Amino acid sequence: MINRDEFAETIHNIPTPFHYISHARSVLTKHNFIEISEDKLSDATGNFFVVRDNRAICAVKMGNTDHAVILSAHNDSPCFKLKPGCQCSTSNGFKQARVASYGGLTASTWVDRDLRIAGRAIIKNSDGNGISEQLFSTNYPVGHIPSLAVHLSSKSDLAPKFNIENHFNPIIYDSLDEIISKELGVDKSLIVDMEVFFVDAQKPSFVGTDQSLLCSPRIDNLSSAITSLNAFLTAESKYVQILVVFDNEEVGSATRCGAGSNFLPTVLKSICDDDYFPKNCIFFSCDTCHAFHPNHPNLTIDGSPHLGDGPVISYDPILMFSSEMKTCAIVKEIAKNAGIKINQTCDPNNARGGMTFGPMVSTPLGMPSIDLGVPVLAMHSIRETCNFDDIQALQKLLIEIIQNIDNYY
Length: 409
Fold this sequence. Notes:
24% of the residues lie in helices and 27% in strands. It is of the alpha/beta class. It is globular, with a radius of gyration of 22 Å. The mean pLDDT is 91. Its EC number is 3.4.11.21. This is aspartyl aminopeptidase.
């Protein structure tokens, strides 16, 4: 199983979806997977993977098409992104980056934090012909969002009424194009455009005498994206295995690299040109869920998952999740036989949670599906908390599912 320090370092080194794709591409290539372009999918054989816009990836282990297991996750997380064409403004001598919120972030947790930048830049070739894309990530803070001193607030309030447009623009001390050009080792005049994410500069940390609690940015949803990749590479089966990781779940998935796109259907068509093939697949939508919160017990229900109690099946009676009775039963049996603790959760009626991408994929393809992942506290905070044992258990469970699913389905 994955080492905790290695896992924490991997999260730190994946500040954006682009960096996840870079990580996955490197790992898959080391395992002798061949990268092919979408227009060559019809020629694909053996173990291969395809990437769309360096934001979504689908990897395939070819095998018997009577059954197939699809592991899926998303690689994006809530953050602040630089507005296009709005690199910075100056206010009373301070440089500020003009940003927009991406996803449903808990904005108050981003103040008074060291922030680094990461993303991708489009670089003009030095000979003036053509462009290329390069990733960047600073390993040092470049700015922060200072809070308002309590003495200056109109009243004592644990949640002051700020708005993101005016009050959450990071203060920076160097121009971003200078920082990025230095990181990439190119003249800033060659930078045509850039996509910039502000992310937590602090590395993940482990808390407690047994170091079991992981406090980290992007647990939602790198905890799923990393473990799904690891399980996919480790597990062995005579049937088709598929890993697909989408971008843009945090903003609805309705993009060409999101779960609502034709990315997965296109790959499935290349594997088996049979309209019934998707019905032979089981789709595992891996995403985090809310853990029991000891400070807000009224917002959870009896039986809500606790940190350290294992992976969780997410269920919703109005089908905001895709979990079905049969797939839930199969996963429970596999977990039981493997000695893996597993939980099931449902949001309380007075505090509906969000939905994930499972229904968006399984519905049009008509494939059975299930939503599962690790429970977390402070989801969408700049730093979330989970139990690392749950991450290891999720990876073990996904391996067991791939290797034993044909006994049940």
